[in-house]
Please model this.
Amino acid sequence: MAILTAARELLAEAGYAELTIEAIAARAGVGKQTIYRWWRGKGAIILDALMETGDNVEPLPDSGDLRADLVAVVRATVAELADPRLSATTRALTIETLSNDELAEQVRDRVLRPQMEAIKDRLRTGPLRPEINLDQAVELLIGPPYHRWMLRTGPLTDEYADGVVDLALAAFQK
Amino acid sequence: MAILTAARELLAEAGYAELTIEAIAARAGVGKQTIYRWWRGKGAIILDALMETGDNVEPLPDSGDLRADLVAVVRATVAELADPRLSATTRALTIETLSNDELAEQVRDRVLRPQMEAIKDRLRTGPLRPEINLDQAVELLIGPPYHRWMLRTGPLTDEYADGVVDLALAAFQK
Model:
């Protein structure tokens, strides 16, 4: 759809702070009213743009090697965060989540929960200590990279991703 | 200072999205030009307002019991995030960090690094496995609560804080 494509292009080119409904309308060749008929604001457009790219969450592979499977997903997450173009949407949605309660619930339920559930499903086959809370286990894998990305406190590399997995596994399998 | 006090009050009352330079100027009884002479925008004002409240980072106590000391700091962090009024400033600074590169560096260096260094100092006396990377260790304690707060994926309680510490300690002390 032209509007969502325009929104994605502009986001990658100029960033979220610069993104306006006017610019999206101009790029898509429609009037602003057309956009406001369907979306409340730019956050809602970006959310739909993200969902439309088919960024559907696939189940994690289960190779039988928990470390290898977690390294694959954490490396991919860290690489996406490290790339300013790829992480532009995540940045935009995080800003909206912090600013807008209604959108926050949608981002959580449509984007975040499916990603977290996919990791939980892989953790469920373990091996993990039986008393591990799976919600907290997922946070241990993705909370630190997210924190580091958001607050720019350190490099986002494969080596870092592997270190996150190794620390988490030490906790899960003590 | 009247401007910083006005900014803090308005932030607590109305939230960051609603906060404007006009409103801060009106509440402080000054002209907008006075504000723009000293600050570039509302993010910079909030950062100074936060620094002014004397929210200086104290060294963590070292009781000799690592779990007790970490439970104290993680519970306090989680309680602050769980309180909408107390976390309004953190919310505002996180939004600005994601939107504004220049401010991001200031937030990191003036607010975040001192907090993380205080936790690192306590971790340094351990006991921890010697190969643990202290930057990653701190992220393991504060990344998950921050992620949960930001993305609203679960409750922020003392029980949760204790669980974060126990998982992290299992990783640190395996």
Q: What stands out?
A: The radius of gyration of chain B is 18 Å. Chain B is about 70% helix and 0% strand.
